[in-house]
Amino acid sequence: MVISTTDPAPEQHLHSSTFASRYVRDPLPRFKMPKNSMPKEAAYQVINDELMLDGNPRLNLASFVTTWMEPECDKLIMASINKNYVDMDEYPVTTELQNRCVNMIANLYNAPIADGETAIGVGTVGSSEAIMLAGLAFKRKWQQKRKSQGKPYDKPNIVTGANVQVCWEKFARYFEVELKEVKLKEGYYVMDPVKAVELVDENTICVAAILGSTLTGEFENVKLLNELLTKKNKETGWDTPIHVDAASGGFIAPFVYPRLEWDFRLPLVKSINVSGHKYGLVYAGVGWVVWRTKEDLPDDLVFHINYLGSDQPTFTLNFSKGSSQIIAQYYQLIRLGFEGYKNIIENCIEHARILKEGIEKTGRFDIVSKDVGVPLVAFALKDSSRYTVFQISEGLRKFGWIVPAYTMPADAQHIAVLRVVIREDLSHSLAERLVSHILQVVKELDSLPSPTAIPASHVDAVVDVVEKENIGPRAAGKTEGEIQAEVTKRWRRFVENKRRGVC
């Protein structure tokens, strides 16, 4: 790369390559701003070089988040990247596009919108913010009712499954709401509606159901939850509502499972959130929350400002944010339409089937995920006595794949799985290639010495090294799987050192 500079420094020529300049000899600033400027080309090059060490987003099978969009949408994103969404008076068309998205999504979820009415909802940074807003609405409505009845309103709680995403724990902790979790069990990794309703009491602000569990992709039975909760409400005189966290499944179920009742067709469902940046097929940074009716969003949570040019209602946790993701969502909704989304999700489901069958044919794994749900494959080793899923995850990284391994929440934490999320950009051939790489990693692990064949003195030596370096179980509080993976990693390094010594 050739750069031009006016810097008269003696060590810098007027025209030189970035790699021949002093900018690659000096360490890149980390924690303090540098005293002097550098040419834009040099700044670009040194940052770009560091970013090469990141993983490939397309091969990151841990994430549900979109990693590919059409070039035409990329152009729209770049053209609007300097627009602040909150400036509604200055960018009225962008505001109108957001309102269109809200109404399209609300109608997709069968919201009871009368002719001439508009849906109640808002665009967010992601489902985390959407869940915070929905939770605040439930808490405020519950508090208002308790106050009017002259009852205590200082101990709200929310009922969820132990499989919920961490944003629910954040909501509970940040906004002082008790989180009552339904524990899981082996073979059943979603919230049990019966147990959930048993946990409901007069202080429950809502029950949160997950349409697409992060752990296994499974849809929770919202219809049964609605029936059981309706019965309990009649018996107790309460009116405990339901929120559906459709972060992953909200752009799946309407297109491929249209008869599944999980949305506003169920009377107790008062709000739904969905991630536009997951199967809404937009890059990271956009989510949505919609309410059943205007009455389900308390007026005193909506602020009105006029210092940007006109009266503007706002209900968000943040203020300024970019417009590009909102515009990208509108592009996808009109570009793809119902048919386009349906075709893409069906392709994802088909590729998940191919991957599942390939993994089953290895004979080494049990499939944990279900066929109906988010297109992903979660699988566990049939035999973990020789090696673990954590070692398989590590082995796949040498091929570039990022496949997470993790343990289930309470009370199924003894189950450890690998999970592959099937996104739009994972093709048939890539799915087949992944299966071959999984099998290759397994065969390599098979060739390693059995843990029972390793002399005890050698194992003790490795464990001692791990603990001395402050990464042992007592020092770091790691899970059993993580400890085993770390010890195995050290053992392999120990063996390699021995081999080099002999050679």
Set down the secondary structure blueprint.
Layout: E1 2-4, E2 15-17, H1 40-51, H2 71-79, H3 92-108, E3 120-124, H4 127-148, E4 157-161, H5 166-174, E5 178-182, H6 193-199, E6 204-210, H7 222-236, E7 242-245, H8 253-256, E8 269-275, E9 287-291, E10 303-305, E11 312-314, H9 324-361, E12 365-367, E13 376-381, H10 389-396, E14 405-407, E15 416-421, H11 428-446, H12 456-468, H13 473-476, H14 480-502
Parallel strand pairs: 4-5, 4-6, 6-7, 7-8
Antiparallel strand pairs: 1-2, 3-9, 8-9, 10-11, 12-13, 13-15, 14-15
Helix pairs in contact: 2-9, 3-9, 6-7, 9-11, 10-11, 12-14
Structure write-up:
By secondary structure, the chain is of the alpha/beta class. Helix content is 40%, strand content 14%. It has 14 helices and 15 strands. Strands 3-9-8-7-6-4-5 form a 7-stranded mixed beta sheet, with helices on both faces. Strand 10 and strand 11 form a beta hairpin. The longest helix is centred in the last third of the chain and has 38 residues, at 324-361. The radius of gyration is 26 Å and the shape is globular.
Short description:
By secondary structure, the protein is of the alpha/beta class. Helix content is 40%, strand content 14%. The strands form 4 sheets. Strands 3-9-8-7-6-4-5 form a 7-stranded mixed beta sheet, with helices on both faces.
Order of adjacent strands in the largest pleated sheet:
3-9-8-7-6-4-5
Shape: globular
**How many strands appear in the DSSP assignment?**
15
Spans where pLDDT lies below 50 across 5 or more residues: 1-6, 10-14, 456-463, 471-475, 494-503
Helix and strand element order? EEHHHEHEHEHEHEHEEEEHEEHEEHHHH
Average pLDDT for all residues:
88
Which structural class fits the helix and strand makeup?
alpha/beta
Largest sheet: 7 strands, mixed
Number of helical stretches of at least 4 residues: 14
Q: What percent of residues are in strands?
A: 5-15%
Distance between the termini: 43 Å
> Helix proportion of residues, in percent?
25-40%
Gyration radius from CA atoms, angstroms: 26 Å
